[in-house]
């Protein structure tokens, strides 16, 4: 198997004009190629290995852990573990569950550590006991760093200043650009890594019915290019179902940053998409209420959560 990162070597930051240049995840020592591959959408193990051969090194063992994806990571890890950057997610809502969840995932992947332990879907900052338990996995060498995902943008300002949090994972795309106002300008000088998800807005940005008359319908490649063109974003996830979707995502790295004209076009499309009722967004609101309840925040819509520190 070929070694990853064939397009470039060494460390670079997000200001590079090449999307293939590795990006340092914030204040950590972890460098990733800026397109990461998520496990939850059905991509085959063969295509996961092909993604690595093409140069991708960032992999997300998340909500739906398919045997194909896990098998590919085990095979790759047996030969190239130092080159892989593996994110393991846990939804544990109690301190003792953090380590147990991580141990189970590490056993399944036949590896001794995760590069990133992701505390999934905390719309207010996790309790100190949760963050301390996550920090303990780093102290023990079971994880190299800690990430928190969130749907409530004001919370990121608090998380970004917590020494126990190394990276933030947030929704950011042309239809949901709010992080440009609510998050990015408020990051501390010693900034966390920023990883974006749902670049296509659950596919809504690809829907011709939502695109303004006279404008071209974006492709998935366009959506990834838009996200990665923002210098605040270290990386974004792609969730391909098959090899063709993987290739379309990788094409974003080949094409590189958008021009100002392209960015303006994507923003027009994004505004139009945002004006339509999002079915996925409504479903997410219901899920948010449940997640907030089990997190100890009450059965509350995320938009109604407090703005101040938790």
Gyration radius, in Å: 18 Å
Question: Reading side by side through the largest sheet, how are the strands ordered?
Answer: 3-4-5-6-7-8-9-10
Mean pLDDT: 90
- Find the count of extended strands (DSSP E, 2+ residues): 10
List segments where confidence is low: pLDDT < 50 over at least 5 consecutive residues: 1-15
> How many helices?
10
In what range is the share of β-strand residues? 5-15%
When the domains are counted, the total is 1
Second-tier CATH architecture: Alpha-Beta Barrel
Question: Would you summarize the structure shown here?
Answer:
The protein has 310 residues and is of the alpha/beta class. Helix content is 37%, strand content 13%.
Characterize the structure shown.
The chain is of the alpha/beta class and 310 residues long. The chain has a single domain, classed as NADP-dependent oxidoreductase domain (TIM Barrel, Alpha-Beta Barrel). Helices cover 37% and strands 13% of the residues. It has ten helices and ten strands. The strands form two sheets. It has an eight-stranded parallel β-barrel, surrounded by six helices. A two-stranded antiparallel sheet has the order 1-2. β3, α1 and β4 form a beta-alpha-beta unit. The longest helix has 16 residues. 44% of the residues are buried. The N terminus is likely disordered.
């Amino acid at each position: 198997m070929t070694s990853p990162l064939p397009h470039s070597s060494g460390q670079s930051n997000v200001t590079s004009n090449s999307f293939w240049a590795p990006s340092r995840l914030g204040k950590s020592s972890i460098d990733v190629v800026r397109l990461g591959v998520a496990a939850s959408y059905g991509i085959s193990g063969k295509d996961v290995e092909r993604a690595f051969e093409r140069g991708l090194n960032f992999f997300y063992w998340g909500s739906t852990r398919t045997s194909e994806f896990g098998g590919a990571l085990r095979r790759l890890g047996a030969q190239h573990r130092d080159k892989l950057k593996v994110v393991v997610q846990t939804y544990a809502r109690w301190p003792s569950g953090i380590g147990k969840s991580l141990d189970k995932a590490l056993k399944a992947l036949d590896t001794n550590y995760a590069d990133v332990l992701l505390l999934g879907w905390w719309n207010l900052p996790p309790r100190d006991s949760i963050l301390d338990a996550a920090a303990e996995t780093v102290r023990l060498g079971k994880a190299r760093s800690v990430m928190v995902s969130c749907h409530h943008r004001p919370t990121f300002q608090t998380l970004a200043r917590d020494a126990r949090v190394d990276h933030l994972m947030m929704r950011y795309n042309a239809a949901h650009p709010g992080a440009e106002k609510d998050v990015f300008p408020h990051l501390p000088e010693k900034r966390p890594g920023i990883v974006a998800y749902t670049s296509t807005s659950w596919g809504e940005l690809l829907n011709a019915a939502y695109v303004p008359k006279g404008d071209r319908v974006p492709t998935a490649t366009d959506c990834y290019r838009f996200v990665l063109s923002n210098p605040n974003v270290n990386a974004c996830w792609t969730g391909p179902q098959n090899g063709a979707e993987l290739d379309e995502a990788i094409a974003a790295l080949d094409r590189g940053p958008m021009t100002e004209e392209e960015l303006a076009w994507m923003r027009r499309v994004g505004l139009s998409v945002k004006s339509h009722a999002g079915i996925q967004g409504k479903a997410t609101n219901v899920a948010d209420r449940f997640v907030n309840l089990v997190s100890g925040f009450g059965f509350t819509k995320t938009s109604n959560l407090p703005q101040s520190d938790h």
